[in-house]
TrEMBL record:
Chain positions covered by the region annotation Disordered: 1-21
Protein name: Purine permease
Highest taxon in the source lineage: Bacteria
Listed InterPro entries: NCS2, UacT-like, Xan_ur_permease
Taxonomic source organism: Sneathiella marina
UniProt KW keywords: Cell membrane, Membrane, Transmembrane, Transmembrane helix, Transport
Pfam families: Xan_ur_permease (PF00860)
Transmembrane portions of the chain: 38-59, 65-85, 116-139, 146-166, 186-206, 213-233, 260-280, 342-363, 369-390, 402-423, 429-449
Keyword Transport attached: yes
Membrane topology classification: Multi-pass membrane protein
Annotated localization: Cell membrane
Similarity annotation: Belongs to the nucleobase:cation symporter-2 (NCS2) (TC 2.A.40) family.
Parts forming coiled coils: none
Length: 456
């Protein structure tokens, strides 16, 4: 891999090849590079279904199924991006996975419905939201000008900052079911969470290559192994899971009619706008970091449509909303390899893994504190990715005002949701998500404020 990286920065035909999305490295290099993309996103992809399963208080078998479907749909959605169908797909090395951005909507729905009743509501909202996201992709190229790095950076940063408390709560033992665990905050939960964080940092900065790129996965494995002799891993979930299973579409059905369903659908459609903005940021990051150019309108439109279609397909199979993964954008910048075929290989590995429920059962048995340690790092990295996008922004008085108001209102309402408790349920859910008000204000203020404010 180091040879590929050096070639990427060298002059000549080699540099042109690896920075071409259509270039196919030798299969001996392409396979490990594809697996590396899976390792970089695997922990994040399974985190969302784990969080929703805990929030709804689901049984082990249902949790395993959600994890299984998250792998299948991530692989299928990635193929939509890398291979494409007609105008759908960016034909860029974009890895798809379950989206953290929708958690502020999904968690309250899971808590409110509880148990299996939550899933038909979630998947109905995901289907409608995915279709709406797809339609956004057909026109988003015309509105590219209202999504500068100031807006996309704020959106990505807000996602990370709004979700960091989720990781911290998991480190304490978890409090997303209908009750707080009796030993919430116990020393052994905090010990495991901190062990995972330290292990991730050690793997990231004391190793190189695939080990460094898969630091999150290494941290999870170390925390998991240490939790076993501590008696914190439920082996029954693993023992009872099947070795092989064919995915079952529409297993939980759809609920489009309940009051909660309508609230969830509105929330998912509005969050789809925010997710589309995030996707534009990721596409820009790939073309800039991997090829040193701006993305084309066709790439932005096709990538956004693939995002939406992947989410809609996920609803049918039983997966949470999908989106492009920012950590894989960073991986492309690190390796210098722009080949979409490498990411296609990673997608095939994900699809194959989905047919073996034992893999999902092993993940489902993971203690909350172990997941929490990794989540704190991952959510923090998302916030850092937003900060990196903002680093290209001129921090003048105008832009500082936009940043201050967007973050202040967005995160403030999330921290104190009682301020808007008197509003309708759907409005309260959106305003306290952290993400929607921040994104709306960033776009609105960027459009109406003068480009150059006079010094006072």
């Amino acid at each position: 891999m180091s040879e590929i990286s050096s070639n990427a920065s060298a002059a000549g035909s080699g540099a042109t090849d690896v920075r071409d999305p259509n270039h196919m490295p030798p299969i001996g290099q392409a396979i490990p590079l594809g697996i590396q993309h899976v390792l970089a996103m695997f922990a994040g992809n399974i985190t969302v279904p784990l969080i929703i399963a805990n929030a709804a208080g689901l049984a082990g078998a249902d949790t395993v199924f959600l994890i299984q479907m998250s792998m299948l749909v991530a692989g299928l959605a990635t193929l939509l991006q890398t291979i494409g169908i007609g105008p759908i797909g960016s034909r860029l090395p974009i890895m798809q996975g379950t989206s953290f951005a929708f958690l502020p909507v999904l968690i309250p729905v899971a808590k409110a419905a509880g148990g299996l009743a939550a899933l038909p509501v979630i998947f109905a909202a995901t289907l409608v939201g995915g279709i709406f996201h797809f339609l956004i992709g057909t026109v988003i190229g015309r509105f590219r000008g209202i999504l500068p790095p100031l807006v996309t950076g704020l959106v990505v940063m807000t996602i990370g900052l709004a979700l960091i408390p989720v990781g911290v709560e998991y480190m304490g033992g978890g409090k997303f079911a209908k009750f707080v665990t009796k030993d919430f905050g116990a020393w052994y939960h905090l010990f495991l969470g901190c062990l995972v964080i330290v292990s991730i940092l050690a793997a990231k900065f004391l190793t190189k290559g695939i080990a460094s790129a898969s630091a999150i996965l290494i941290g999870l494995v170390i925390g998991y192994l240490v939790a076993i002799p501590m008696g914190m891993v439920n082996a029954d979930k693993i023992t009872n899971a099947a070795w092989f299973s064919i995915p079952e579409p529409l297993k939980y059905g759809f609920d489009f009619t309940s009051d909660l369903a309508m609230t969830a659908i509105i929330g998912m459609c509005l969050m789809a706008i925010v997710s589309a903005i995030e996707t534009v940021g990721d596409i820009s990051g790939i073309t800039k970091g991997g090829a040193g150019r701006e993305p084309t309108a066709k790439e932005i439109s096709g990538g956004t449509m693939a995002d939406g279609l992947g989410t809609a397909i996920g609803a049918v199979f039983g997966s949470m909303p999908n989106t492009s993964y920012s950590q894989n954008v960073g991986l492309i910048s690190f390796t210098g390899v722009m080949s979409r075929h490498v990411v296609t290989i990673g997608a095939i590995f994900l699809i194959l893994a989905a047919f073996f429920p034992k893999i999902g059962a092993i993940v489902a048995a993971m203690p909350n504190a172990v997941l929490g340690g990794a989540a704190v790092v991952m959510f923090g990295m998302i916030a850092g990715a937003g900060l990196k996008l903002l680093s290209d922004v001129d921090m003048d008085r105008r832009n500082m005002v936009i940043i201050a108001l967007s973050l202040g209102v967005g995160l403030g309402l999330k921290a104190e949701p009682g301020v808007v408790a008197a509003l309708p349920v759907w409005a309260t859910m959106l305003l306290t998500s952290g993400l929607f008000p921040a994104a709306f204000l960033a776009i609105f203020l960027n459009l109406i404020l003068p480009k150059h404010l006079e010094e006072i």
